[in-house]
């Protein structure tokens, strides 16, 4: 499921974003701070405990109070944008789905 996809991302390309990553192709002087979150809509009751445990372990889940469905994708992104604006001072904001490749 999606937990496996998130874990695959964490253990591969997202691991390069860690400041202490020895696998990064960039020198310490070239690195920038990149924050990422996995955006989730409101979970079903049976998913809550697993998502709380995943969040406690990784701290990279952003759950918004929007039902989880394809039809609510835009309101979910708007909720994430509002959260990001309230928590970070950033020059760029990127949204990508798990089936997208950003170059």
From TrEMBL:
<dbReference type="GO" id="GO:0016758">
    <property type="term" value="F:hexosyltransferase activity"/>
</dbReference>
<keyword id="KW-0735">Signal-anchor</keyword>
<comment type="similarity">
    <text>Belongs to the glycosyltransferase 31 family.</text>
</comment>
<keyword id="KW-0472">Membrane</keyword>
<keyword id="KW-1133">Transmembrane helix</keyword>
<keyword id="KW-0333">Golgi apparatus</keyword>
<keyword id="KW-0328">Glycosyltransferase</keyword>
<dbReference type="GO" id="GO:0000139">
    <property type="term" value="C:Golgi membrane"/>
</dbReference>
<dbReference type="InterPro" id="IPR002659">
    <property type="entry name" value="Glyco_trans_31"/>
</dbReference>
<keyword id="KW-0812">Transmembrane</keyword>
<dbReference type="Pfam" id="PF01762">
    <property type="entry name" value="Galactosyl_T"/>
</dbReference>
<keyword id="KW-0808">Transferase</keyword>
<protein>
    <recommendedName>
        <fullName>Hexosyltransferase</fullName>
        <ecNumber>2.4.1.-</ecNumber>
    </recommendedName>
</protein>
């Amino acid at each position: 499921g999606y937990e496996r996809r998130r874990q695959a991302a964490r253990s591969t390309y997202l691991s390069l974003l860690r400041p202490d990553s020895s696998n990064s192709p960039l020198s310490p002087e070239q690195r920038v701070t990149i924050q990422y979150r996995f955006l989730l809509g409101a979970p079903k009751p049976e998913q809550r405990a697993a998502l709380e445990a995943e969040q406690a372990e990784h701290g990279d889940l952003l759950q918004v109070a929007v039902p989880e469905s394809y039809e609510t994708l835009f309101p979910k992104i708007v909720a994430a944008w509002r959260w990001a604006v309230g928590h970070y001072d950033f020059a760029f904001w990127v949204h990508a789905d798990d089936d997208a490749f950003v170059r």
